[in-house]
Write a structure and sequence with these properties.
homodimer, 453 residues, Rossmann fold, seven-stranded mixed β-sheet, four-stranded parallel β-sheet
Chain lengths: 453, 453
């Protein structure tokens, strides 16, 4: 027996404010640009897509933003989430490292996504919006928004990447149980979808295409808005409850992280955990290495360029300065659906360019091996996305075994795999392949970047 | 905002003893009998199937049994489990009742089953057993035992009722991720399975048949034992951690339950929550009504007889005095797989005969309607089994709405539905049917009861 397993906070210790890292950075991130004028977009440009409260949060200069009571009331269904000490994994690895994981799988849909879905639905409902549209890949985000819309009485319409729609029917069933309508993307319901289908009738879709469809539908109806599950500043803002809680829980544990690892698709899980720790680091109160882990099959930070690009495939969004593989990039149908996005949060990209975090890309078989190892030791089967963070965590723990260092590692376990078990089946059945991503393929996609700005 | 949502206990408040209700009952339950001699079975009769420690617990006269440190260490991965006040469901129902639910879905496999799987695997490993066999229906029990075997380094072989094996592939994937081997039952690996297949080549199986197969395999190998996920005294004993925690949590809440409802298949979830409260009731310290809820399609308590019967279909087990529909009864393939058992825990049956609890049988559509209502209010999609308890909870809350009574209702939410979502799909798609269970069908199965004892 080796001390405490979980570090729990009382409901009364749940954060009451979100943390906005932008004022604490040495310089602000470059603004989104209007694709026509190449000028920074203003609130009016975004009004067809987002409610005023979220537009204000997107550009806020305040360091802290109050979490509305109504949102806190829903957060309390699962927050504060637990911080675990992974005693059993440590023993299985024989490492002197101390491994902690912050577990977001306790939420209604089993991931960190409701942390932002709930406030997004709340602000939309408060401003009289009656329906939200969105895209989803593996379905974590779509089910989070479906849940949040059920709570605040909004309609919810989801375009799900067809590859996932077909392979992971349980996510669709979860969204429908919460009352949402789900379409496979590309669909024939939108101009964007029909354009893709005309050229590629068998298209299995991409997040970029699904975003185009959801954006198009929202823009066409004055009572409908669009909700995005990652990438944007306000989304990362909402996720900082993860890191704020983890800071308090490390105080309970009497420990301080030396290395923080999280997986990155659009960046919200990683930013949510990392930003409050980065604040402490910028203030000189701690000095952890902070590391983003992405799939080798979709390596926007490690192999993409830092440039203005569209957030979606059809080019309907503002131009975002970010690490991108090009908005036409279609990643291999790897099993970590939430990490298959051509771009990266502009805020996180900026922080990476400032040298405040590092990044690494890992192959998926190594990630699933880490996932199985973790499951058999700790009892939780990790979602495919956080297996990337766990694989890096295992690498770091095994380096400590070599050197004898007693490093403290914190990893973001952003969800469980209950609805992604076929991916584990593929891994255990030996059907999972690590595709090489040829340089030419990246170059081809990058050639389609919008004209230099 | 309406006060606390969750009542959490610290790890240090986790129960360190299981509660054995038998010494507190006005009379002990009738013993299991050897099917040949019709005499009470002794430890030697059970030794081929169970380790000595569990056989001792099965017949123990002690009121409290210490939980080994190694078991507590694993329990701490998810225990103490939360008690919730269902504020949002109360508001949705407009009831003056106060509704609480004890949530066991936080466990590694999403149900209460690991509470007994972990000690069963521990005691077997300590006595040198290298492999456990078991049966499973929907798969909650099989995945719990697979997890527990992974923790203590045992092999695990599971016979899963074919109807569930085919319809719910995710559970099989979970068991395999934890390292278990899974066979559909009836299988051609056992005499019992081959006998069924010879007569019914398309058999979709039953828990009774799967038990026969697992028991047969365990009895044939001296290093293998069998593990049962419900029904027996030691299983209900292990589950009392649920009720012991809930008692402490009600103290935190400053409330006392007037009605306790739980679903019953074999009886372990219900007994686990109810027995510590029943102890308090027998001692005159509180006076809740305690109600078992079973499916109308498999109503062992409400329409079965109280008689000695086999626990399995092939007649390999001792004879158990219990409420039974007859060991040849094959229930409709309803969607609450864990409640499709012909019998009922002998201990719980005895307590029912003593008049200490009551029981009701509900149709499955009403149960799923309650499940959807609960999910949209509270965020957790309940497993099909506990929707039965929730449906009764809704009935009780609506009665309070009529009468204005502010009853305190406690319900056992023994698991989530992540791996049972196709059942919700069937309900939402209008494909779920409430079958009537004709009296003749029950009479036919009861005619096969073993000769009167």
């Amino acid at each position: 027996m080796s001390g405490r397993t979980k570090f729990l906070l009382d409901e009364s210790e749940m954060p009451t404010q979100w943390y906005n890292i932008i004022p604490d950075l040495p310089e602000p991130p470059p603004p989104p640009l209007h694709p026509g004028t190449k000028q920074p977009v203003g609130p009016d440009d975004l009004a067809p897509l987002f409610p005023q409260a979220l537009i204000a949060q997107e550009v806020s200069g305040e360091s802290y933003i109050d979490i509305p009571d109504e949102v806190q009331d829903v957060y309390r269904l699962w927050r504060p989430s637990p911080l675990y000490r992974a005693h059993r994994l440590e023993r299985a690895l024989g490492t002197p490292a101390r491994i902690y994981y912050k577990y977001e799988g306790v939420s209604p849909v089993g991931s960190h996504k409701p942390n932002t879905a709930v406030p997004q639905a709340f602000y939309n409902a408060r401003e009289g919006v009656t329906k939200l549209t969105t895209e989803t890949g593996a379905g974590q985000w779509g089910s989070a928004l479906a849940f949040a819309c059920a709570v605040f009485g909004l309609e919810c319409e989801v375009w799900q990447v067809r590859a996932s729609y077909d392979q992971k029917p349980y996510r669709k069933l979860m969204m429908e149980t919460f009352g949402a309508t789900v379409h496979p993307s590309p669909s024939d319901l939108t101009v964007s979808g029909r354009a893709v289908l005309a050229e590629h009738p068998d298209s299995t879709g991409s997040l970029g295409i699904a975003i185009s469809e959801a954006v198009e539908m929202a823009a066409a109806d004055p009572d409908t808005r669009y909700a995005l599950g990652s990438v944007l500043n306000h989304v990362l803002l909402h996720q900082t409850v993860i890191g704020e809680e983890a800071l308090k829980q490390f105080e309970l544990a009497g420990d301080t992280p030396d290395v923080i690892v999280g997986c990155t698709g659009g960046g919200s899980n990683f930013g949510g955990l990392a930003f409050p720790f980065l604040r402490e680091k910028l203030a000189g109160r701690m000095s952890p290495a902070i590391r983003a882990v992405e799939p080798a099959a979709c390596p926007s930070l490690t192999r993409g360029v830092y440039a203005y690009d569209f957030g979606d495939t059809a080019g309907l969004t503002p131009l975002l300065k970010m690490h991108t593989l090009g908005h036409g990039f279609i990643p291999d149908p790897i099993h970590a659906g939430g990490l298959r996005y051509h771009g990266m949060s502009p805020l996180l990209s900026h922080i990476y360019e400032l040298g405040l975090i590092d990044a690494v890309a890992l192959p998926q078989q190594e990630c699933f091996a880490a996932g199985v190892r973790f499951a058999r030791a700790e009892g939780i089967i990790p979602a495919p996305e956080p297996t990337h963070a766990l694989a890096e965590c295992v690498r770091e723990a095994l380096r400590c075994k070599e050197t004898g260092e007693e490093k403290v590692i914190l990893t973001a376990l952003c969800g469980h795999a209950h609805l992604d078990l076929p991916a584990y089946g593929a891994y255990l059945g030996g059907e999972m392949i690590d595709h090489d991503l040829p340089e030419e393929e990246i170059e081809r996609a990058l050639a389609e970047l919008p004209a230099s700005t």
